[in-house]
């Protein structure tokens, strides 16, 4: 298809008496009559979720076990990443950053081991947790997640040990 770029052709827009600029449709060869509704929907969904594409989420886990207790050993993973084993002394923390999966389903879980205790916990599930800076403390009473609204740590339950090995 032949396209002319002469100021008298409709691809140009008159800005002032002697200034013509190409119209958006002309520069990107967009034909409004043939705009695919699926393409428009895809572009809308992409821009609606694009915040997740560049904004990082942080998870921090702090050992708040009794000081007389031995160290806390944690091993954190997602479906895509194994963050390895980390040993935390009393009041030490482990922190990592990640980007949310653009198409959803981001999840991290950790196992926790000290003395004769072994537990595991989902520390981030995109659809469940409403935090961009998830701060966990692990104490003898169990895990707690910081609530930014109430500014206190909310006690949570360990995951069922039979559902994950």
Automatic annotation (TrEMBL):
It comes from the Eukaryota. Coiled coil: none annotated. GO terms for biological process: rejection of self pollen. GO terms for cellular component: extracellular region. This is S-protein homolog. It is found in: Secreted. The keyword Acetylation does not apply.
């Amino acid at each position: 298809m032949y396209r002319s770029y002469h100021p008298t052709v409709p691809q140009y827009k008159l800005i002032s008496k002697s200034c013509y600029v190409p119209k958006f449709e002309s520069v990107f060869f967009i034909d409004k009559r043939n705009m695919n509704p699926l393409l428009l929907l895809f572009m809308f969904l992409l821009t609606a979720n694009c915040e997740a594409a560049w904004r990082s989420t942080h998870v921090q886990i702090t050992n708040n076990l009794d000081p007389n207790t031995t160290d806390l050993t944690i091993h954190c993973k997602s479906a895509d990443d194994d963050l390895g084993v980390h040993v935390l002394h009393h009041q030490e923390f482990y922190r990592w950053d990640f980007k949310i999966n653009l198409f959803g389903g981001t999840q991290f879980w950790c196992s926790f081991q000290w003395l004769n205790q072994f537990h595991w916990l989902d520390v981030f599930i995109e659809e469940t947790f409403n935090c961009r800076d998830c701060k966990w403390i692990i104490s003898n009473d169990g895990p707690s997640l910081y609530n930014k609204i109430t500014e206190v740590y909310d006690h949570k339950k360990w995951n069922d040990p039979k559902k994950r090995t």
